Amino acid sequence: MTAGRAALLTPAGRGAIASLLVEHAVNLIDQQQLFTAVNNQPLAQQPLNRICPGLWGRKDGRHSTEQIVACRTSETRVELHCHGGPAATRRILEDLAEVGIDRCEWTELVGLAEEPSHSQLGVELDQALAATTTWQAAAVLLDQRSGLLVGALQRLATVDWEARHQVAGELAGLLEWTDLGLHLARPWSVVLAGPPNVGKSSLLNALLGYGRAIVWDQPGTTRDVVTGSTALDGWAIQLSDTAGLRTTRDQLEAAGVDHARQRLATADLVVLVVDRSNRLDDQARALLAEHPSALVVANKSDLDDAVDQFIPETALPVSALTGEGVAELADAILERLLPRRPEPGTAVPISARLVKHLQQAEEAIHEDDEPAYRAATDACLR
Questions:
Q1: Which of 120, 167, 108, 133 is CA-nearest to residue 351?
Q2: 120-177+343-380, CATH topology level
Q3: Cβ-based neighbours of 130, under 8 Å, separated by 6 or more
Q4: Could you tell me how far CA 147 lies from the centroid of its own chain?
Q5: Are 228 and 206 in contact (CB under 8 A)?
Q6: SS3 for 208?
Q7: Are residues 301 and 324 in contact, defined by beta-carbon separation less than 8 angstroms?
Q8: Which value, to the nearest 10 degrees, does the dihedral of the CA atoms of residues 24, 26, 29, 31 take?
């Protein structure tokens, strides 16, 4: 007998509805009386692909029941839809575990699906769609999943070699969206950095709209990287507040500075914060020189301006205290990360694997290597 497995399909956290997929366990659910349908028929006798409301949980008087909707999608699979809070899904998964149904990652069940669409590319699209957290990213992914991306890749794979230079532009157009495509399922990383006590934590809280970071006027308050997630104009952003960058003998603070520099090295965008109410010291000037591409913010614009000529003319005046300039800063962050957005109907590569093969195809055209081009474009569609 094949062991039963269960997976949570929807992202963790609170939501209106949560969905679980259970495999090879329909009869066991009936035997253990875990589900009672409103029509009083066993789950195994419910018609395929028809929703069936009912109660989850044994009627033994010791446990409460949970209102759910079940739907058998095949002879071996059933979807369970319940309240979106973590307590409901945890209870169902624990009940299933008690009767021998193992929990697994949802990708394991999706990867076993027999539908032709679930090639590696199909699974990558499903994974990205499930992981995305904003409507903007979901809209782009749904566009790709509708056949748009596969269609673009098929055109590249079937082009006559004599016409290869005509599709080189389409290939380059696809690769132009690499950065966006790789951030559809994960947020952009924006790191707030700067000397101690310039208001990075206050700025993080202002951008998030709630108090995530501790704010105090003592330099070195932030000893570790503090993160918070938000969405700017519908695009997922992870903001990180880092320890003030300075030379220090305090071992704990020095460790925080090391963590900050590590985070800076992998950031999609560095927001360098300086205090415009004080003249810049040597360390602040060194940071400006070290990060020439950073988005510079002159915080504390509610106080008198005391900065000198070393601050870039493009620095944004902001007051984390009063909120002045915070909306403009959010716009500037988004403009740096997404200087343009794809129109509906634009094909976008959505995985590192796909980008790698597209780059190989582009190189093969330049090298006039047809076998390598065919291998790369075929690999895209697997």
A1: 120
A2: Four Helix Bundle (Hemerythrin (Met), subunit A) (1.20.120)
A3: 9, 10, 11, 106
A4: 22
A5: no
A6: helix
A7: yes
A8: -100
pLDDT band at 118 (very low <50, low <70, confident <90, very high): low
Residue 113 pLDDT grade (very low, low, confident, very high; cuts 50, 70, 90): very low
CB 183 within 8 A of CB 348: no
**Higher local confidence (pLDDT), 223 or 10:** 10
| Contact present, 108 and 96 (Cβ < 8 Å) | no
Check whether 122 has a pLDDT greater than 50.
yes
Res 215: pLDDT:
38
| pTM across the whole model | 0.72
Give the burial string for 296-313 (b: 16+ CB within 10 Å, else e). bbbbbbbeeeebeeebee
CATH architecture assigned to 5-111: 2-Layer Sandwich (3.30)
For the beta carbon of residue 45, count every other beta carbon within 10 angstroms.
Answer: 11
pLDDT tens digits for range 225-278: 577 888 899 999 999 887 555 555 555 555 555 666 677 778 899 999 888 888
Alpha-carbon torsion (47, 53, 58, 61), positive or negative:
negative
Rounded Cα distance, 203 and 217, in Å: 14
pLDDT tens for 76-96 read 999 999 998 888 999 999 999
Confirm if 319 and 297 have CB atoms less than 8 A apart: no
Q: What b/e sequence results for 148-186 when a residue is b if at least 16 CB atoms lie within 10 Å of its CB, and e otherwise?
A: bbbebbeebbebeeeebeebbeebeebbebbebbbbbbe
pLDDT at 105 over 80: yes
C-alpha 29/C-alpha 32 separation (Å) is 5
Instruction: Calculate helix-pair angle for 120-131, 149-158, nearest 10 degrees.
Output: 150
pLDDT at residue number 252: 54
Question: Can you tell me the distance from the alpha carbon of 217 to that of 279, in angstroms, rounded to the nearest whole number?
Answer: 17
Sequence spans of domains, the chain = 5-111, 120-177+343-380, 188-337
The CATH number given to 188-337 is 3.40.50.300
